[in-house]
Design brief:
Blueprint (H helix, E strand, L loop, with lengths): L10 E7 L6 H16 L4 E8 L5 E7 L2 H8 L2 H9 L9 E6 L7
Amino acid sequence: MTTTPNVQAPVSLYGFLTPRPGHADRLREMLLDLVEPSRGHDGNLQYHLHEQEDGRFFLYEVWRSREDLDRHNATALLADFMAEVPEHLEGAPEAYSGEMKSPYPA
């Protein structure tokens, strides 16, 4: 596979968030409140929230570029979320990010 030097590969961000006992409903609400606004941010290609059988939440995002993800992360929407979310989590989020290696459909 060859890549074009000036074309950035999409970036994905994904991970698990474990709610504290008694905080699942509030965490779910907070995460759902991110979905539609985030999908509307420039450069968003995918934004999905899943709830696992064990109660953890799985968030999966794909952004056109690292710059688009950085702009999203700098919004008031994310700042407000990040300020409140620690009180609802059991431990730190398990988060991963990276450049996609497989082709992304145009």
